[in-house]
Fold each of these.
Amino acid sequence: MINNQRQHETPRERARVAAELQEEARQLTENARLTAGSPETTPPVHTLPHGNGNGNGKQKNGNGAKPEPGRPEAERALAAFDAALADQPASIALLLDRASQLGAMGRYAAARADLEQALVLEPANITVRTALGIVFLRKGLWAEAVPHLRRVVEAESWSPTAWFYLGEALNHVDDLDGALAAYRRAAEIDPQHAKALYGQGVVLDRLRRPEDATCMYRRSREVAAR
């Protein structure tokens, strides 16, 4: 959508076009997710996903194959974000949106690059740190996720989901005391958080406290069944 005539546009016109491109890209992104069959298939990277932190969040069709996302829509959305960012390269919102689209397409390295660029532009932005932590979690880079998730829970101590994912990361780097504390905090905020209860059971098992672990597993099952 960018051509040689763009250089003659006024800043206001360029801002209007960028806003239109951004809205078009968001609509295309939503269409791509709907085409994939489930809004949970590719949750945005700029928000912490809720619910099952241990599952892969992917569903399969009747033949056992993973559903293909709406590729034309996804590529068009990405192109629209590219065009908008060409006009506003320092836009945190656009970098987050493009990172979300890249994450939905499984292009985590590119999503990480956008988020790290956004973090350089605005180091105190908790939304960016949240998104970066999620990218690291999806890639299994647990140690890299920990400092970002710590910053998130410092700023959003009310979020059980943030505490849960911090617990997940700490468990994977063998900080068992820290993981147990994070899972417990998530369950204190949200007593119905079955995954936080289950996470406590996992850590208690690793700490060789089988009776306490069994109790947590039981509570997790009870909550999940409600």
Note: The chain has two domains: 1-139, 142-226.
Amino acid sequence: MKRFLLVSVLVLCSSRGFSSAVSLVDNAVTRAYTQKMTIHFDATKFQPDNTIRRDEAAKFFVNFAKGVGQTTYTVNANECQFSDLHEARDDLRAVVVESCRLGIFRGSDGRFYPRGYLTNAEAVAVLMRIIDGRQSEN
């Protein structure tokens, strides 16, 4: 996901040159920090070229969803009990459950896989789910 963020910013800013793109990445990370989407306050600490764990992504996307007004729980709390929740970082366990309750992440077979890494495709799907809701696949 972090690579997705970097690539997206670079693509959007390709006409502005590399130094402008780097500045935009710094600004994006600063804004994400201000909105509590990340604990990192600059691009060096954020490490946009690294992968992101699913529990970290849950925090990022829950705070993004709240920022765009998506705060309605769509999933019952009973459906968000994960057998591997103990594998999530201590400070992210509650947000993992909240990401499920908001319908952002659902997990599979009663597991969330918090240590797994989010792919770019999954990041796009989650972003679309927040913006457009769950769409029928028919």
Note: Helices lie at 2-12, 18-34, 43-46, 54-67, 93-101, 120-132.
Amino acid sequence: MLPHPKGEATSIADAFHECSLGLHKIDRSGLDDNARPWVIKLEELMDTTDLADPNDVGTWTVKAEQLTLDQKFELSRIIAELAHWFDRKFWKDG
């Protein structure tokens, strides 16, 4: 997801958007004990509740700008883990 020509925050905001699209209609009952906590944590990292966007850059960009380095690493790890989990599930259950 990195680097982005408009900067790291834009890249992360784009990833938030893509993850949101992927999680929008997911059947949570189909998640196992590995994937469920990843989805919950991803949604926590993406949460923009109570964020102000005075510069009209988008709340996901504002959120991305506020992430710590550890949170960025965690976000990358979670996205990779979920991608791998869905890939295995697709090919296993396909």
Note: Residues 8-93 form one domain.
